[in-house]
């Protein structure tokens, strides 16, 4: 324990926040968010504090007392992300009440919960973190953050996005403290926060407040409302940056958002996005009973634990629970427990894929509609189309994408005859690790 001005400073803790996917909560078929949360040490709050939030579609306002109004609220939350703001501010409130200097903030999420985690990181990037017990200021801080995504000048107020960034800078300097997000881990973030209509928040897809970003993505998901929200890259011009629907790109060689908002210069985020075999919930979990081992989601959970420990962000796991999950901890990194390795090879690499377009045909209604889809090409330019998806696979626009070596194992199995549904360019870079 060190000291500053003669006063003792407590050792920094890990503040680990986990946000579940759409309509997901603790149940018999849990997602990787619940499973990851279950692996964390929780007894010693002087070293680590953990927060779990159920997914979009589970939140009900405290004022909703009627069963009918509660049901309608849940439907609205799932359909149009009605309570997305509340989900983000809920995580922010936990940090405001518990953060102290030296703590490490780590965020995790699946699906729309991954979007929530990244939105929280974006809010912290934009306005910083309020001091403890400033409950009344949270909603205002969130409103200041949301305005920073404006790319147009309001004709009535003559208020532009650059003005909003300046206001965010002043708000941060006046009321808040800057924080760094040590680690953000996501399972298959989707671009649509609602099934029918979506909300877009600024700087969700990239920001310099994040030190390490890890993302497990699905090769076989092909529903139009589950387009992946990958990390956005620098755009070649301000015009191209303005076309980013997530308001996350900035132009190379021009003033970046962190400069406009007065942020100190930081190293670029350590980004790794890896593609795995399986559809959305095969990658993020929730398709199979929680006690079942050797599922596709087991591979992505093990990979995430490996990346957390390799990043040296300091998150503490329960070794007993890791061993039960087949993950053995060494001094430096996790590996699959030797006696379970063969089971993982047989079961996980060849586990069945769950296709929601087949099991839930009503999803085809959306496949027939000319819904907008946008993407960023390898040069950073933005494009969009309104052509019906018709069940087509995802397209990976960055050449030579990172594929898990477990995908190669699956492709090499003659019995499975597996070919990734996603369309990609060039030869994949095979990403391995001691987790398989």
TrEMBL record:
| Record domain T6SS Phospholipase effector Tle1-like catalytic: where | 13-307
Output the InterPro entries linked to this UniProt entry: Tle1-like_cat
* Pfam families in alphabetical order: T6SS_Tle1-like_cat
Q: Where does the record place the region Disordered?
A: 234-264
Q: List the PANTHER family hit by this protein, alphabetically.
A: PTHR33840, TLE1 PHOSPHOLIPASE DOMAIN-CONTAINING PROTEIN
Q: Supply the name of the protein.
A: T6SS Phospholipase effector Tle1-like catalytic domain-containing protein
**What is the species of this protein?**
Sistotremastrum suecicum HHB10207 ss-3
Lineage of source species: Eukaryota, Fungi, Dikarya, Basidiomycota, Agaricomycotina
């Amino acid at each position: 324990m060190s000291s500053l001005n003669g006063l003792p400073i407590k050792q920094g803790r890990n503040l680990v926040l986990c946000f579940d996917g759409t309509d997901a909560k603790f149940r018999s078929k849990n997602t990787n968010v619940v499973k990851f949360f279950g692996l964390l040490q929780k007894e010693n709050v002087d070293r680590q504090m953990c927060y779990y939030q159920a997914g979009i579609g589970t939140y009900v306002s405290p004022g909703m007392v009627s069963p009918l109004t509660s049901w309608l609220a849940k439907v609205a939350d799932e359909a149009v992300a009605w309570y997305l703001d509340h989900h983000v501010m809920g995580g922010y409130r936990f940090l405001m009440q518990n953060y102290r200097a030296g703590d490490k903030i780590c965020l995790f999420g699946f699906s729309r919960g991954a979007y929530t985690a990244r939105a929280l990181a974006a809010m912290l990037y934009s306005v910083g973190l309020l001091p403890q017990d400033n409950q009344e200021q949270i909603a205002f801080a969130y409103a200041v953050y949301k305005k920073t995504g404006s790319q147009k000048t309001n004709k009535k107020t003559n208020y532009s996005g650059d003005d909003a960034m300046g206001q965010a800078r002043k708000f941060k300097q006046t009321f808040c403290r800057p924080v760094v997000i040590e680690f953000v881990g996501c399972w298959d973030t989707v671009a649509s926060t609602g099934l029918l209509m979506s909300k877009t928040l600024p700087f969700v897809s990239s920001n310099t407040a994040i030190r390490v970003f890890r993302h497990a993505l699905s090769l076989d998901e092909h529903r139009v409302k589950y387009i992946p929200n990958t990390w956005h890259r620098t755009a070649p011009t301000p015009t191209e940056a303005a076309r980013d629907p997530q308001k996350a790109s900035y132009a190379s060689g021009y003033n970046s958002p962190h400069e406009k908002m007065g942020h100190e210069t930081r190293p670029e985020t350590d980004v790794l996005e890896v593609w795995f075999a399986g559809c959305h919930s095969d990658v993020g979990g929730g398709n199979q009973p929680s006690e079942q081992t050797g599922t596709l989601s087991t591979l992505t959970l093990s990979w995430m634990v490996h990346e957390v420990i390799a990043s040296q962000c300091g998150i503490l796991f329960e070794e007993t629970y890791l061993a039960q999950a087949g993950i053995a901890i060494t001094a430096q990194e996790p590996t699959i427990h030797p006696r379970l390795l063969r089971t993982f090879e047989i079961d996980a690499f060849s586990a069945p894929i769950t296709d929601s377009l087949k099991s839930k045909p009503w999803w085809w209604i959306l496949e027939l509609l000319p819904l907008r889809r946008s993407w960023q090409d390898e040069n950073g330019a933005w494009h969009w189309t309104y052509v019906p998806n018709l069940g087509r696979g995802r397209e990976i626009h960055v050449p030579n994408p990172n594929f898990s070596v477990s995908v190669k194992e699956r492709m090499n199995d003659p019995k499975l005859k597996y070919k990734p549904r996603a369309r990609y360019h060039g030869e994949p870079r095979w990403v391995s690790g001691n987790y398989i």
